[in-house]
Amino acid sequence: MLTGVERRHEIIAQIKNSDVPVSGKSLAQMFNVSRQVIVQDIALIRAAGYEIISTNRGYLLNEPNEVSRVFKISHTDEDLETELFSIVDLGGKIVNVMINHRVYGHMEATLNINSRRKAEEFLEDIRSGKSSPLKNITSNYHYHKVAADSEETLDLIEEMLKNKGFFISVSETDGRE
């Protein structure tokens, strides 16, 4: 017999892994509880921050379909605009920039650039002299976590980075960062 917490985790999993709405009746049968217990569980799941949608055929979980990948990149300051525009033009969002410095260790900054407008705002901050790109303290080597709607989009972004000469495979650097 599952505890309430365990049952709610299982309910989330059932709804998340289903391609069709999951009825309250089927959940009640699955967990050997009443339909009213399922209604209460759904209320608690929603209170925990899950966006559960009730339809006339059952429950659905509304969650963004987003995948991400970390790319190791190297380019000059002059290529920064090309890099950012190319990623967002293919449907990517540059979530962050990261470096691994030999002395300072891992450093990371959130960017959340998902459009040319946001890329321009970032570039303007760099051009105005407010700061310089983080990559400059590691001889241009840096990482970006890039999010997109699908693995196919991330594959296109990776291919573009390779074609432009920005993509660095981990084996190419031999620890030079």
Task: Outline the fold blueprint.
Layout lengths: L3 H13 L7 H8 L3 H13 L4 E4 L2 E4 L5 E8 L5 H10 L3 E9 L3 E9 L2 H12 L13 E8 L2 H13 L6 H4 L4
Antiparallel strand pairs: 1-2, 3-6, 4-5, 4-6
Helix pairs in contact: 1-3, 2-3, 4-5
Q: Spell out the helices and strands N to C.
A: HHHEEEHEEHEHH
Tally of extended strands?
A: 6
Rg, Cα atoms, Å: 22 Å
The span between the termini is 53 Å
Strand percentage lies at 15-25%
Oligomer: single chain
Number of helical regions: 7
Tell me the overall shape: elongated
Strand neighbour order, sheet with most strands? 3-6-4-5
Structural class: alpha+beta
Give the uncertain stretches in residue-range form.
Answer: 173-177
User: For the report, how would you describe the main beta sheet?
Assistant: 4 strands, antiparallel
Helix content: 40-55%
Average predicted confidence as pLDDT: 91
Can you walk me through this structure?
The protein is 41% helix and 24% strand. It has 177 residues and is α+β, with helices and mostly antiparallel strands. Strand 4 (93-101) and strand 5 form a beta hairpin. The termini are far apart.
